[in-house]
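[audit] Reproducing an earlier prediction to check determinism. Same input, same settings, fresh worker. If the C-alpha cells differ from the archived copy the diff job will pick it up downstream; this log only records the rerun itself.
[audit] input (377 residues):
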Amino acid sequence: MDFSFTEEQTLLRNTVAKLIQDDYDIETRRKVIRAEPGWRPQLWKQFAELGLLAAGMPEEQGGLGGGPIDTMIVMEEFGRGLVVEPFVPTVVIGGGFLMHGGSAAQKSEWLAKIAGGDTVMAFAYAEPQGRYNLADLATTATKRGGGYVLNGHKAVVVGAPWADTLIVTARTAGGQRDEKGVSVFLVDKKAKGVSTRDYPTVDGLRASEIAFENVSIPADALIGQPDAGLALVERVADEAIAALCAEASGAMKVLLDTTVDYSKTRKQFGVPIGKFQVLQHRMVDMFMNYEQSVSVTYMVTLKLGDEESERKRAASAAKVHIGKAGRFIGQSAVQIHGGMGMTDELNVGHYFKRLTMIDTQFGDVDHHLRRYAALGE
C-alpha cells in the first residue's frame, strides 16, 4: 500500500509546521493557557485564512476538497505544538456531525461558518453516570409545540468556555441506556436556561460543566433523524479518535526527540547518559512505540470510510495502542530526564499530561479493549 503524501498534503504539513514553529513554542503556550481566555482567537482566524479549518471538508460543502488524511496531517503537527485551539470540537466533531447528518440548510449555514473561523463549537455528550457509554443519557429532549425542551447536565465539555454553539446528545425516547432514542441537537450556548461552570484542565485546555433547564430549541436544531442518532454519534466519535491518535503521535515524536537530545548532553560518571546500554534500550523501545503509533493512526484514518463494524474495530484498536504507547513514552521521557521531567519549565511534563488526557477521551484503554472484543463476537 502506498503511504506517500500528495504534493498538496506535503504543502499542508509544511504550512502547519511553520505556523507551529513560529507561534507555538512552549513558553508562548505557557503564557497563553495561564491568561484569559486561555486560547488565541486571532490565531483561530489565522487557521481559517490558511485554509486549515476547511482542509478536510469536501468542496461541495465549502471545504478545500480534502478528507480524513488532511485532518490527520493537521492534527499531527498540532500535537507537536500542543495546540489548545478547539480544532477537534469544532472542525472534526462539529463539521463531522453536519457533513454526515446535517440538513441542506444546516450544511449551508454552519459549514461555511466553521471554514471561515466564524464559529466555535463544543460537544456536550458526557454525563457523570455514563462513563464512556455514548447511549447512557439522563439528559432529555421532550417534544413541545413545534420544537423540543432540553433538560439535563453534561460534564467535562472540552472547549465549551470558548464555544458559541453546543452539539448536545439527549434522549428523546426509550430507557436511559437504550441504543434507540438518542438524538443530537445544535444549541445556542447563550440560550435561556443554559448555565456553565468553566475550569482549566490538567493539560492546559478549558472545559465546562453545563446544565440545561427547560431550554427551548426549535425543531430545525435537530441533526439527523430523531431517536436514531447513536450511529451518527459513534461515527463522529470514531473520527475524533482518529484525529486524537494523530495528535498523540505528534506529541510522542517531540518527547522522543527531546529525550534522545537530552541523553546526548546529560553526563553521569563523566560520559553522556545516552552511552548507557539500558537507556539505549529504553529509547529504542520509545522509538518503536512511536513508529507503531504512526502506523495505527494511518490505519484508522484510512478505515474511517469502511463499513461500521470494521471502522469501530479500527478505532478501538488504535485507541488501545495509542493509550499504551503514550503512557510508555511519557513515563520513559520523565524517568530519563529525572526530577526535572515534571517541572513546569520543561516541555516534557506538558506533553505527558496531554497524552494522559488523550487516553481518557472517548474511552480509555480498558474501554476499547472491551469494545474490540465485543465487536469480534
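[audit] rerun output stored. Observation attached for the diff report: The chain has a mean pLDDT of 95.
[audit] end
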